[in-house]
Amino acid sequence: MLSYANGKYVPTDAVSINVSNDMVGTFRGYRIFTACRTLNGGKVFRMEDHVERLFRSAQELSMDLPHDREGLKDLVASVVEKNKDHGDVLLEIMYSGGKAAPASVAPEGPAHVYVLVFPFTPPPMDWYVKGISLASFAYQRQWPNVKLLNYVGGVVAHQTVVKNYGATEALFVSPRDYQTILEGTTFSLFVFDANDTAVTPPLDGTILDGVTRKVLLEILPRAGIAVEERRITLTDLSNMNEVLIASSTRNIVPVVKVDDTLIGEGIPGPMVKRLNEILTEYQKTY
Q1: For the whole prediction, is pTM greater than 0.85?
Q2: Domain spanning 125-284: which superfamily?
Q3: pLDDT value at position 41?
């Protein structure tokens, strides 16, 4: 597989970053990214949304980019074309700060761009058949509405609460009240309440605008499923019929347990199956 590394196409396993030439990204953490996938013969799923989020993130951080939106889309299309014989692929698009200006922590010029290509590998089928468990972790990401390449909170959560509960993934809750559910390490959360309404935390400046989250908010009402954006707490979960996570690389995965709280009967419910069918059909015709 060929990836793009700041001006050159190189085999993915040979991509490297010159630390001295990228001090602002490597030592200062000035990086943003997005992860997306191809389907249906090489089309990047919801490319426009991924590009818009990257450019919004760059604007939020006052990051200068080396091209405009069309330039990025052309670059990604070129990378996809070079890997068209590999089937569906995972793309990790990253902007990294670059070289520091003399005697400064600020970048000398526009961010460096990388488009890394990997085989698309879906999660284990057991996740969809049996469901997964989550462990809550009090943490709110820095610049929550920006797709920062900083996952220290997620790593620490996996090193602590995920291990303690024997869970699959971590769910971030607000460190202000230790109750308000925000988002997962790499996913958005949805629940189905007693009325079978799909509920997800609102975009109130505390969570990321997930692309799959956005897709579900668009397509579920068309299928006759009510959707609401409102606050959800850990205490609420015991009264929810179903819980699920949603992300670009997983689609929809049922959650059967959060901490010590069993969701419903502790098995995936019918609404999660229906949502996966709706999303899969949408992707087939995308």
Answers
A1: yes
A2: D-amino Acid Aminotransferase, subunit A, domain 2 (3.20.10.10)
A3: 75
